[in-house]
Specification:
Elements (H helix, E strand, L loop, with lengths): L7 H77 L3 H11 L11
């Protein structure tokens, strides 16, 4: 069990030194303050993490919006091209109407 890179033996040594320095009456108050400080640090870290998550999602959303816009532009272009290119039946009907009758002429020499 490691707590912030400190093993159980090191943690016990730190607690004994703190007990000798601050005494048994002051040690519970220090532990209480330390617990509050750790709680505030965790809350601040969670807040920072949520801000970065929101920022990351905001950065990624324009890409998805851009992809949606590109897809819709491609659809519009495809529809326009389909309207401009006549189908085979329409093309043959148009050619029949626009072709001039071929007149055969004989050349005399």
């Amino acid at each position: 069990m490691n707590f912030a890179g400190v093993g159980p033996a090191e943690l016990l040594l730190i607690l004994i030194i703190a007990l000798l320095i601050f005494g048994p009456t002051k040690l519970p108050e220090i532990a209480k303050d330390l617990g509050k400080s750790i709680g505030k640090w965790r809350q601040a870290l969670d807040e920072i993490q949520s801000i970065t998550d929101v920022s990351a999602s905001e950065l990624l959303s324009p890409r998805s919006e851009e992809a949606e816009l590109q897809a819709s532009v491609q659809k519009v272009i495809k529809r326009k091209n389909q309207k401009e290119v006549p189908s085979d039946d329409e093309a043959s009907a148009d050619q029949d109407e626009t072709e001039e009758p071929q007149v055969e002429t004989e050349c005399q020499t």
